[in-house]
Automatic annotation (TrEMBL):
Role noted for this protein: Peptidoglycan polymerase that is essential for cell division.
Transmembrane regions listed in the UniProt entry: 12-33, 53-71, 78-96, 108-129, 141-160, 166-183, 190-212, 278-299, 311-332, 344-365
Protein name, per record: Probable peptidoglycan glycosyltransferase FtsW
Catalytic activity, EC: 2.4.99.28
Keyword Cytoplasm found: no
InterPro entries with a match to the protein in the record: FtsW, FtsW/RodA
Localization per record: Cell membrane
Keywords per UniProt: Cell cycle, Cell division, Cell membrane, Cell shape, Cell wall biogenesis/degradation, Glycosyltransferase, Membrane, Peptidoglycan synthesis, Transferase, Transmembrane, Transmembrane helix
Pathway the protein takes part in: Cell wall biogenesis; peptidoglycan biosynthesis
Top-tier EC class: transferase
Family annotation (Pfam families): FTSW_RODA_SPOVE
GO biological process, one term: cell division
UniProt source species: Ammoniphilus resinae
Family according to the record: Belongs to the SEDS family. FtsW subfamily.
Length: 384
């Protein structure tokens, strides 16, 4: 254990709490109509927001713990972290497993459900970062460096894809590619991961007709949506919400589409509710804040003088960025809908908990970076 550590990056801490707070507010606005009219939620208009606030509290505790865990722990324990991250993926096949929306991706813990695949993304980031920093230049060698990274990544991906959880598997795979490439792998090396992965994705799409419909529907949702098919209908309702919001929005809490027109307004399509209520200006300000938030993580990462810290930061920024792009791209009709939540904003305990836990790891790295800066200043004064 380290006797003294630097201060965490308070700007990142504030920005994280601001995002979480904004997310809770938007979950309330997007969900209270659905929760009030649906007996599955006890006709309680506060059903979702109360649970999201509770998950935010759990996330805050997890973030503070991760922030105060010595940075060296993550670096030294990366194989163990990866092992447990992979092991919990198989809990969905035990009696604890629950099937929701056609996927057995959750485990039940009393009144709550957790999605192990969300935690595996962080576990894989830590594993790849630890492996690359340990191997150094030897990481570029096939047998001792690249093969373990590619095999572990592929194993994680197949375990998630088998649940099946297509969206999370894609995010995990793309994040791993960024970390491996940032760690020094050449493009030709990445092809050893990408080609089998693309082939596996193609097989998954061909074996599941609904995935083919998602790909074809986003190109022209009106063909299916007007006939009542889910894929087209969801996207059309999202378009209506964004069109109704216009430039300035209809005002907070005044969305029309959340009145049981827009499916999953508190999860997959929460950005559509934001667009309707806050308009183009509100969404642009949100995205600007989000970009500054990601930039702050990148700044902390680049300030760290350790390969492991650099790669963990790159991995977490990539994970959050890719998931954000996939969510917003889906609801705006730019890419097929995959059903992944908007980080920090959408309702969902696992996503929020993992996002806040990830920020705790970044804050732990920032403490190490701050300590390095203090040591450098003390050395400069001594030399002077």
């Amino acid at each position: 254990m380290e006797k003294s550590r630097g201060m965490p990056d308070f700007l990142l801490l504030f920005m994280t709490l601001a995002l979480v707070g904004f997310g809770i507010v938007m979950v309330f606005s997007a969900s209270y109509i659905l929760a009030y009219y649906d007996p599955d939620y006890n006709n309680d208009s506060l059903y979702f927001v109360k649970r999201q606030a509770l998950w935010a509290l759990f996330g805050l505790i997890a973030m503070l713990i991760a922030m105060n865990v010595p940075y060296s722990f993550y670096k030294q324990s990366f194989p163990l972290i990866a092992f447990f991250s992979f092991l919990i993926l198989f809990l969905v096949y035990t009696p604890l497993g629950k099937e929701l929306n056609g996927a057995r991706s959750w485990i039940g813990l009393g009144p709550f459900t957790l999605q192990p695949a969300e935690f595996s993304k962080v576990g894989l980031i830590i594993y790849l970062s630890g492996l690359i920093s340990k191997k150094g230049e030897r990481f570029r060698l096939w047998k001792n460096g690249l093969v373990p990274a590619l095999v572990v990544t592929g194993t994680f991906f197949l375990a998630i894809a088998g649940q099946p959880d297509f969206g999370t598997g894609v995010i995990l795979l793309m994040t791993a590619v960024v970390v491996i490439f940032s760690g020094g792998a050449h493009l030709k090396h990445l092809m050893a991961l990408c080609i089998p992965a693309v082939a596996a994705l193609a097989v998954m799409i061909m074996l599941a007709p609904y995935r083919i419909r998602r790909i074809t529907t986003f190109l022209n949702p009106w063909n299916d949506g007007m006939n009542g098919l889910d894929e087209g209908y969801h996207l059309i309702q999202s378009f209506y919400a964004m069109a109704n919001g216009g430039v300035g929005g209809v005002g907070f809490g005044k969305s029309i589409q959340k009145y049981l027109y827009l499916p999953y307004p508190q999860t997959d399509f929460i950005f559509s509710v934001m667009a309707e209520e806050l308009g183009f200006v509100g969404c642009a300000l949100f995205l600007l804040f989000f970009i500054l938030f990601l930039w702050r993580i990148i700044y902390i990462t680049t300030e760290c003088k350790d390969t492991f810290g650099n790669l963990v930061g790159i991995g977490i920024v990539s994970m959050v960025s890719i998931q954000t792009i996939i969510n917003i791209g889906g609801v705006t009709g730019s890419i097929p809908i995959t059903g992944v939540p908007l980080p920090f904003i959408s309702y969902g305990g696992s996503s929020l908990l993992v996002c806040m836990l990830s920020m705790g790891i970044i804050l732990s790295i920032s403490r190490e970076t701050h300590k390095q800066g203090l040591r450098s200043q003390q050395t400069d004064r001594f030399d002077a």
